[in-house]
Amino acid sequence: MLEAYALGAVAPEEGAHIEEHLGECLACWDHLSESQRAAALLALAVPLEAPREDLRQRIIAQAQLETLPVASPSPIPRGWRLPRLVAIGATAVALAAVGALSWSLVETRHLRSDYDDIQEQAIISAQQVNVTRELAGIEGQEMKASGRAVGASAYYMWTRDGKQGAIVCHDLPPAPEGKVYQLWITCGPEPLNGGTFSAGEGECHQIVSLNCTSQLSGVNVSLEPEGGSINPSNEIVLTASFSR
Amino acid sequence: MARLAMRDIKAFEALYDRYGTLVYSTALRVVGDVQLAEDIAQEVFLRIWRRPDHYVPQRGRFVAWLLSVARNGAVDQIRTRGRRRRHETGSEESVQDLPDEGRDPALMAQLADERQKVRRALASLPLEQRRVIEIAYYGGYTQQEISEMLSQPLGTVKTRIRLGMQKLRAALEPEVGGE
């Protein structure tokens, strides 16, 4: 069964049983790893066909346009467990710092100072979070959890200029082996890829570039195969919809 | 990858030149549609550009990871959009060499050697084992779906996949082990 799992040829319920078993069987992990490496090499056997030259130009041009990564980790140290409101407040400040490209250096330093203060004090009230958000021009909404994420809490924030967004989550179970969480931004007819994350120690702090100046109508997090997907699967675990 | 993390566009161009054909061909093998395969290849490379840290060297070789991302992205597409092609075996005859237009000759030679090994390993399998593995990997079908497609008992399909993969692992031992 591990060989079929390595090929991605098992049904979801079978996969869940295997993942459960893997948690108790180190030898199975080794066996699976070798099978997965063999499966990955199968792609080397495909007949080669050169892509059109304009594909190279298109990809390189798009990469050059993206001077900032679409998704990047927030500056909050990984694994640092902050009280929920503190994390939201800190991310709001970090989001403002990332999004406000036109702000002066002085203002940015001021925000950084705020951020450091929040980290050091590790206490902040809901009112302070709201004030921070208001001052920074940030809106936010709690997300609904379902499926694997039941019991988790998540909050999505975005700058009013529509250029930046961020998700903060707590008590989110790690993605199953071979899968990652992927953020999707609904801005217009097609969901935009907001990057993948793994929810280390149940936490996530992810900042994304939106370039969505209008029609930001929702945000979803889905479970996807490792490496992420081009379109969201049906396995949505966190969701929020809003009007701007 | 360190240069990619530093937003070095030349490193990104070199990455595409080395692996662009492989990534595109992998996607094309799965989806059977030129435009869609190009879109998948574009997404794969831009994902690396955006998040080079997604590749973790401790988990295996870069090329294996890269092609897995391409294959998984392509399978995801056909599962979302519906099947567009039948997945046959016997593609070995049309295999070509990797293009080496001014690209890293040592790497190209290594990849060409590995491609030969994988093709030989696949060709050494009994046809029925090779067939179910190719349908599963390139087609993104589950064992149950393969069983129905080939009108064969599910147990037979499972056995063939297990035995075939075990033989592949053995045949590719130097490449599979010790990473």
Order of helices and strands of chain A: HHHHEHHHEEEEEEEE
How far apart are the termini of chain B? 18 Å
Instruction: Calculate the mean pLDDT score of chain A and round it.
Output: 72
**Helix count of chain B, per DSSP?**
9
Query: What share of the residues of chain B does DSSP label as strand, in percent?
Result: under 5%
The SSE string of chain B, one letter per element, is HHHHHHHHH
Biggest interface in this structure?
A-B, 54 and 82 residues
Sketch the major β-sheet of chain A.
9 strands, antiparallel
Summing up helix and strand content along with how strands pair, one would put the structural category of chain B as mainly alpha
Proportion of strand residues of chain A: 25-35%
Question: Could you name the key traits of this structure?
Answer:
A: about 240 residues; alpha+beta; 7 helices; 9 strands; about 25% strand; B: about 180 residues; globular
Task: Describe what you observe in this structure.
The complex is a heterodimer of chains A (244) and B (179). By secondary structure, chain A is α+β, with helices and mostly antiparallel strands. Chain A has helices at 2-6, 12-22, 26-41, 53-65, 84-99, 105-121, 126-136; strands at 71-73, 138-145, 153-159, 164-170, 179-187, 191-197, 204-209, 216-225, 236-241. Chain A has a nine-stranded antiparallel β-sheet with strand order 1-7-4-3-2-9-8-5-6. Chain B is an all-alpha fold and 179 residues long. Helices cover 70% and strands 0% of the residues of chain B. Chain B has helices at residues 2-5, 9-31, 34-50, 62-81, 105-123, 127-139, 143-150, 154-171, 173-176. The longest helix of chain B is centred in the N-terminal third of the chain and has 23 residues, at 9-31. Chain B is globular, with a radius of gyration of 17 Å. The relative contact order of chain B is 0.10. The model of chain B is unreliable at 86-95 (pLDDT under 50).
